[in-house]
Amino acid sequence: xxxxxxxxxxxxxxxxxxxxxxxxxxxxxxxxxxxxxxxxxxxxxxxxxxxxxxxxxxxxxxxxxxxxxxxxxxxxxxxxxxxxxxxxxxxxxxxxxxxxxxxxxxxxxxxxxxxxxxxxxxxxxxxxxxxxxxxx
Length: 136
Fold this sequence. Notes:
alpha+beta, CATH 2.40.50, five-stranded mixed barrel, about 35% helix, elongated
């Protein structure tokens, strides 16, 4: 739902920019410098809109953390928000005790249900998780 809101916001911004432009007054220039400047400006604006849309759609779809085994399957404790997510999807390459970065989608099954992460691919395997030592 957040992704569709981001896309709608980008489309609304583009529509606002296109509708607020003033109509041309019929002044045509033959100056190559001005034509090149206008062309470069349009390319930069188009690239900015494209990059903005990409970032809005693909933001925050990765988890990095240690994979653990639980009675219901594999879980990951995300290094970023310290939340535990049940893993589903493409998890055949994941092993308990490994620190990994995975790409996919976060989801929640319902109120009170544990958070779930649908793994689309393993981005990087960092090796074994560090053992946390307790001091006496």
